[in-house]
């Protein structure tokens, strides 16, 4: 992984980490095949950021792309009082144009495992991502567990077709889906058209990889000592794949999810949906003469992509010592009961996770459907497919530029309460829209994410929904259509709802969330599968913008806000 | 070719043509292989514009790309009094961001054959181009020749690798050249991996194309009647290839070059460099029972691309009647004496082309060299490789924003007057720069474009230089290094220098141009080979900006001009 040297400037307790990054496309071999990658400072993935609670992170981002704008979103960071640095095009800021530099500056106020990524078009899938770790500060809260060392595993999926071509396919009639990824990557490293594990299988379809260890696509090696406890910080920035991670011969204990401590539990493997992060502990209590595989495989879609592998190297064994045991087998992709059981084991940790407010002020039902508009395939929420406007919402809201987006609020519930979620939509037509949900400041909001059948009979997909600017409590998961009375399912015996920023809806199911609208700003809430968001699968919420200081002008240089300072607002076009 | 219906609004003699265009990437098969193409209104090439002298052309351009800005340059249109609508990123305007619409509005004041194309990154090569024809008006000047019908042939070259990948290769160490095109296209149509002409050659390497006629890559058919005279309007928007066009069995008479009438002359074939346009007349005086091939082949580089073909279909023959004679053979690619002889035949037409001013006020020598900067291969002019700034020059000049670009003028002559143009540079290092040549308004300027050896021994390439905003007189071409006294070569017996906007420099040679700096604005002057410009092969000139009205604000929304109206100029970054 590319190294990054930050300038660290401390004054008293406050530390500022200052990074200078240049974004550009480069050639790289994430999986042994050279492809174009959207890189930072000439490497892939982007540099690691490791900060402490209370630090200020400054990233001076220069766009060295040729014709594309760029932004970077700090996934999981709430950006309290700095919503303009959330890094989402059309929402928090105007994109940074080629040749320009933009300064992100925000405080990291909560320890946890996070990551960052492009949030414009499909630049995340193009390779624009990296790790962001926030450690507990020297004062203040202590972590409710102990370990001897840690590793960061940033998981992603990789395609050989450029995202430019994929975007055209998604907007074509007939629709051209991006299909399954060619490779899964661990810290940007995977293997295509060869396997590290074929020697366990004499009838393996792929030849064994020939690797010296210095290749860009050589697997990660985690060097450990026997009888120690290690923390794995796992983050999934996949564009599509739902994943499962396991370590051969070792159980793991889940201790953190999405930057929130959870009630520890032991498991053989961990499900990770795109946008989620987990910390797990594992103890090196196995035969110290052996090395072991970490395997990452696909769940929730019929896998057409081989497992990604990394090596747990018990020192002083050499890293080239091949594990005796094959990599763990990924659970059956469509064993959703197993997936649901895992998700239901995630509970808030008492003492660190407060319980949710007892009741809600507003409930918003969000029906997830696949639809068609003018012959194109889209995703829609309550029959509206989100189309991002050229003027960012935050500036438009702050300065009352009503022409920037549709002022009629989107629906708070299904277009038809009798909607049959078990069948393809009776009327597949949806509309395009860019209206937003305006929430009362500090109100408690429930969201019921309702899954449904796609345009194909007997088909419903996984959607991991990610909310910017907030953590939400996951009240519960259910099957079928959410019904009056299903609230009782929220209160399973003794279950404490976890706080998360990403939660999955299972096929033909629903997921209930609760959050407090306490962060002034405008925030996307969307399916974290990148082509799904590109096809309109998201909403935007806003609250308390009136309590914000002036929005920095360098975030407002486009669209109608770009015309604002010239007193010439009528000249903008939508 | 895609059709375009303009709204035509006349008031008295003045007509306004109004077009609504949407730019987006689509899948298309320019040569039988489906690829991504940057298209306008869903077709490729872009719509034809046909206007009359005195018309106002309005193009309402919407950017429907996902993450890229866009601009369109109206190649050959002088944009007198409207330099902000010249459509060059970093020079005349800020790019149009995704989701935004920009109105180009300009008068076409000179009859001729023109075209339009993207002028940002390598969006021209990506497919963003089309024809622009200006006919003589109903009053005023009459064309100095007659014909019965006309056809437009827009010539281009086509690659299967995306321009995004090509751009990365050009900026990589080791350098990755784009190599020769896969296909040549006539009006966006070519044939890859098959040949229309293989039946003439029993040992042909390519199989015969199987075409029904309705394919996107089916050749153009020019339907003609016997014993008539037709005008072919030929424009080359190639990214790389120098071309030669011939019609089987027919001579042609050259009558127009780059929108200027020329002394007519008859020839078997026409050389066309990228950025040039020609009109030729041909008479259908051959055996009317036959059809004939138009062939377009590569000159000036070792050809690795098959000829492009179109069909001259003598009615009432069926278009499927295969020509008895094979397509004309393109002259030997490196027969530069033949090329120079052709270029020297282009003379201004008395009565339409004034002679150049007798003397110049300023002479600028521009040495064209290939260099390296920080391990990257570049092209440099007087040792400076042009790097476009994020703030467009025009607004920066008009409003005196000196921080927008380097204020030290670039050199008016070679870095070393003893420079040996016949050898690779003794010191291959150059510098990157963005300073401009500021010309006295209405002064007469001579430019000597001096070619040189590249980084490879015994190698010098063709470079067609195109000037925005002006026509120049081509005073002459010479071999070797321009010497004191070579001015006498300008005055060959009886030769009247032609007016053009694009002129080639031959390998190891020089080309002398003269123009009057009479068009207030900032104007690129550059090699029209797109990867060469991308690698820095150009300069920017400016004159008379003080005489301009206010620059339209919608062209100023980026960089330091974007900050200007907020009184916050210090916040911009370069």
UniProtKB/TrEMBL annotation, chains A, B:
Is Magnesium among this UniProt entry's keywords?
Answer: no
As given in the record, the signal peptide range reads none
- List the Gene Ontology MF annotations in alphabetical order: copper ion binding; L-ascorbate oxidase activity
Q: Give EC number(s), comma-separated.
A: 1.10.3.3
Q: Which cofactor does it need?
A: Cu cation
Predominantly, its location class is secreted
What residues does the Plastocyanin-like domain cover?
25-136, 151-315, 427-544
| Catalytic activity reported | 4 L-ascorbate + O2 = 4 monodehydro-L-ascorbate radical + 2 H2O
Location in the cell reads:
Secreted
Top EC class of this enzyme: oxidoreductase
User: What cellular component GO annotations does this protein have?
Assistant: extracellular region; plasmodesma
Q: Which PROSITE patterns match?
A: MULTICOPPER_OXIDASE1, MULTICOPPER_OXIDASE2
Keywords from UniProt, A to Z, are: Copper, Disulfide bond, Glycoprotein, Metal-binding, Oxidoreductase, Repeat, Secreted
Query: Which InterPro entries does the entry link to?
Result: Cu-oxidase-like_N, Cu-oxidase_2nd, Cu-oxidase_C, Cu-oxidase_fam, Cu_oxidase_CS, Cu_oxidase_Cu_BS, Cupredoxin, CuRO_3_AAO
Cross-referenced PANTHER family = FI03373P-RELATED, MULTI-COPPER OXIDASE
What protein family is recorded? Belongs to the multicopper oxidase family.
**Quaternary structure note:** Dimer.
| Name of this protein | L-ascorbate oxidase
Which organism does this record belong to?
Linum tenue
| Source lineage | Eukaryota, Viridiplantae, Streptophyta, Embryophyta, Tracheophyta
């Amino acid at each position: 992984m590319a190294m990054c040297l930050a300038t660290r400037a401390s004054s008293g307790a406050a530390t500022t980490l200052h990074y200078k990054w240049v974004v550009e496309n480069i050639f790289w071999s994430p999986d042994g095949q050279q492809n174009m990658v959207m890189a930072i400072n000439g490497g892939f993935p982007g540099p690691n950021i490791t900060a402490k609670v209370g630090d200020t992170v400054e990233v001076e981002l220069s766009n060295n792309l040729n014709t594309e704008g760029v932004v970077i979103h700090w996934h999981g960071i709430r950006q309290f009082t700095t919503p303009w640095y959330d890094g989402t095009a059309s929402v928090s800021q105007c994109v940074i144009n080629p040749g320009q530099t933009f300064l992100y500056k925000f405080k990291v106020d909560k320890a946890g495992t996070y990551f960052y990524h492009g949030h414009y078009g499909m630049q995340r899938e193009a390779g624009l991502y990296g790790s962001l770790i926030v450690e507990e500060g020297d004062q203040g809260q202590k972590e409710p567990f102990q370990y001897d060392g840690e590793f960061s595993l940033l998981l992603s999926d990789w395609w050989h077709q450029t995202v430019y071509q994929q975007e055209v396919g998604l907007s074509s009639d007939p629709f051209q889906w991006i299909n399954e990824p060619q490779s899964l990557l661990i810290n940007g490293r995977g293997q295509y058209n060869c396997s590290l594990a074929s020697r366990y299988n004499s009838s393996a379809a792929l030849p064994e990889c020939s690797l010296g260890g210095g290749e860009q696509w050589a697997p990660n090696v985690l060097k450990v000592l026997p009888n120690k406890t290690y923390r794995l910080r796992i983050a999934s920035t996949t564009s599509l794949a739902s994943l499962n991670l396991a370590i051969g011969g070792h159980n793991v204990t889940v201790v953190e999810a999405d930057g929130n401590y959870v009630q520890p539990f032991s498991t053989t493997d961990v499900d990770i949906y795109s946008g989620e992060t987990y910390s797990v502990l594992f103890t090196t209590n196995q035969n110290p003469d052996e090395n072991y595989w970490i395997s990452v495989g696909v769940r929730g879609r019929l896998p057409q992509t081989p497992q990604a592998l990394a090596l747990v190297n018990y020192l002083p064994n050499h890293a080239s010592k091949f594990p005796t045991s094959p990599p763990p087998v990924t659970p059956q992709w469509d064993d959703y009961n197993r997936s649901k059981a895992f998700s239901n084991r995630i509970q808030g940790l008492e003492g660190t996770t407060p319980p949710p407010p007892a009741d809600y002020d507003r409930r918003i039902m969000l029906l997830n459907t696949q639809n068609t508009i003018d012959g194109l395939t889209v995703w829609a929420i309550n029959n509206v497919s989100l189309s991002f406007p050229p003027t960012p919402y935050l500036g438009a809201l702050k300065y009352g530029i009503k022409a920037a987006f549709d002022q009629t609020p989107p629906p708070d519930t299904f277009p038809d309460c009798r909607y049959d979620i078990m069948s393809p939509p009776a009327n597949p037509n949806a509309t395009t829209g860019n209206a937003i949900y305006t929430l009362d400041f500090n109100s408690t909001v429930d969201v019921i994410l309702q899954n449904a059948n796609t345009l194909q009979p007997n088909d419903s997909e996984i959607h991991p929904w990610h909310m910017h600017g907030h953590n939400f409590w996951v009240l519960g998961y259910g099957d079928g259509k959410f019904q009056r009375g299903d609230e009782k399912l929220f209160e399973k015996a003794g279950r404490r709802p976890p706080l998360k920023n990403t939660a999955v809806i299972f096929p033909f199911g629903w997921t209930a969330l609760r959050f407090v609208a306490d962060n002034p700003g405008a925030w996307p809430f969307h399916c974290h599968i990148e082509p799904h968001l590109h096809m309109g699968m998201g909403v935007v919420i806003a609250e308390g913008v009136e309590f914000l200081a002036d929005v920095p002008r360098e975030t407002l240089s486009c669209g109608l806000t770009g015309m604002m300072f010239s007193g010439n607002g009528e000249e903008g076009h939508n």
